[in-house]
Amino acid sequence: MALMTVISTLSEQGLEVMGPDTLIYHYPSANIVSGSLLTVESNHFCVLKSRGAILNVYETGQYPITTGDKPLVGSFVQGFFGGQSPWQYEALYINRAKLVVKCSGVALSAEMAEMSYDVDYYIHVPTKEGALALVTHMPYAGHVLTTQAINEYAGPVVEQAINQLIQVTALEQVNEKIHDLTELVRTHLSEFLQGYGITLDTVKVLVRPRDERMRALISLKAFGLSEIDAVRYYTAILMAERGVVSAPNMAIGREFSIGGVVPTIAAEAVAKGLNGAN
Asked: What are the angstrom distances between the C-alpha of 252 and each of 42, 235, 259?
C-alpha cells in the first residue's frame, strides 16, 4: 500500500520554508495525486491548480485531494503516458502574514539637489480573493515570489510619488513635508497593490540629502546659524578633526595669530613695502 503524500510548506527536516521574505511558494513536486493530503498553516492560503486552471483556494486546515487521475490505471496509463498521469497539479502557498518591503532611491529637490530616500512598507494578503488575484496577476520565476520581486513592480510607483512632491519642494523644507510625502506614497502604492490582491498596511518614509556635506550644513543651520556661519563652523569642524590649531578662529571668523603677531600679511601691504624701498 502506497504511503499518503503530504503536501505542505515544511522541508524534509521539518523546517518552515516560507520565511519573512517569501510571498508565494510553489510546491516543487508535480506528484500531487488522488489521496494526497494538502496541509495549510494558519498564516497561509493555498491555491490548487491543474494545467493552469485554478481549482480551489484553501484556508487553514488539512484537505484530501481528489484528482482526475484515478481512472487512469494499469496498462492504459503505462501505454499512453509512460506510467505517469497526464493530470498535473500545482499547489501554490500564499503567505498571509504581514511582510516588510524595503525600497530606496534618489530624487531631486526644487534646487536640483540629490535627495536619498528609504521607504519601508508593510503588506499582507488578507482574503482568499486576494490570494486568487495575486496568483492570477503576479508573474514569478522558479518556485518562490519574494518581497524583492514585489518591490521591482512597486518601486517605480514609490519613486513617482516621492518625486511628485520633492521636485517642487525646497531642500530645507523637505522634512517639513514628510507627513504629506508619506500619505502620497501610501495612496499611490495602495491603489497599485490592490490590483494584485495585496493590502498595504504601514508606510515609513525617510528622506535626506545625498551629499554628506549638505547634510552637515543643514544640521548646523538648524541651530540658528546663518549660511556663512554654518559654512565657517563646518570648515572649523573639519580643521579640528585634522588637528589644525586655528579651527576656533575659523569658527568665529577671526584671523589666527601667534604671540600677538599676525603671520600672514595682505598682498597690498607687501606691494607698498616694496615700492617704498625702491
From this structure: 65, 11, 19
